[in-house]
User: Fold this.
Amino acid sequence: MLLDELIERKASLHAADEAMALIGTMYPLCRSITGDGVRRTLEQLSPWIPLEVHEVPTGTPVYDWEVPREWNIRDAYVADADGHRVVDFRASNLHVVNYSVPVRTTMSLEELQPHLHSLPDRPDWIPYRTSYYKEQWGFCMRHRDRLQLAPGRYEVVIDADLRPGHLSYGECVVPGSTDAEAIVYTHTCHPSLANDNLTGIAVSAVLARAMRRVRPRLTWRFVYGPGTIGSLTWLSRNEHVVPRITGGLVIGLLGDPGALTYKRSRAGATATDRAMEHVLRTAGTVHRVVDFEPYGYDERQFCSPGFDLPVGRLSRSANGQYEQYHTSADDLSLVAPAQLAEAIQVLAQGLSVIDANRPVLNLSPKGEPRLGKRGLYGSVGGNAPSGFEHALLWVLSLADGGHDLVAMAERSGVSFDRILAAAAALEQAGLLRDCEDRIRTH
Ligand code: ZN
Assistant:
């Protein structure tokens, strides 16, 4: 399917079904910020898109951070005196605090308690906990099961490695016809949770696959990496790309029942912000737009003042805003194909608009140029201009270099598609040109 086709309801539903199947295969893998679970996850994308997988060694400095040791886990459990596993990693990878250091010991229930995490308010859900940067270990369990633990000795095993290795991230680059670039980033570091973060990975794969079937104007980079350390690592290795980035989105959490939520870039009112707000408003989708705050996902890094990129974020319920967030209840049943399909529609349209949007300059700005003699205007006078003719007049009027096509659509009330078609016709007629000076078309 082409990107434009995904804007249609039926095609987006079909793509959502494919995304659901992909989410189902990725779901059991134990992901983290590093390790084989991430590599296996990226491998799942290979039938969808060609992905270049980058392996960055432990200890590599990344601004104020460094790439951590790599974590891999084989098994983990807490067993009672009879050898019965009362907490078992094989049943759910959420049972282990992600990035736990290895442990093999026995201890009393009293000694074990500080290492256990549960949710008294949600006794049937397993919480998801991590400890990336502090060396410790722990288990997460249903509160109901925790209350059943009898006093006595317990065997505690976390059969894991935490040693020098690599951080893995994947990147699919779709070359464009100009030097300008855009990025779509989604995090890959959560184990068996569905909405956060498998919906982001799957929807990004849908979009990248569709983008590869068109010749975009911008070069699009679809990046799949761990939260925070992944986007920092990408930025540190791509500083030469950063000045060319004119748009971008962080995406994730796209399948829960919440309304679509667009979070503006830190700068606000960037071309990305205006494009996404225009698309959400004109699509008639129930949605929310929220201002930037320095809490959330990888938009924090892209929008940090040293980069200040025009990168916004699309999710449904934001981080922490739905009750199943970071618990075992964020499972496959939480993700509705119809919700995914709507996100795919909006993103397909959003990416199309971000790709096509540009400021343009009227090359015949003194008075109205004669459109009739160029075959662009009806030859019989007296009639009101047609919709397309109306769009031509709006583009010419606003093409002073200070308006891009989204600004023209917003100001005129004419659809973006029609403004785009009018701009293309005027360019063809030699009456208009792109005026993004730093962008060279090749
Ligand atoms: Zn999360």
Summary: The mean pLDDT is 95. Residues 337-356 form the longest helix (20 residues). DSSP finds twelve helices and 19 strands in the chain. The CA atoms of residues 86 and 148 lie 9 Å apart.
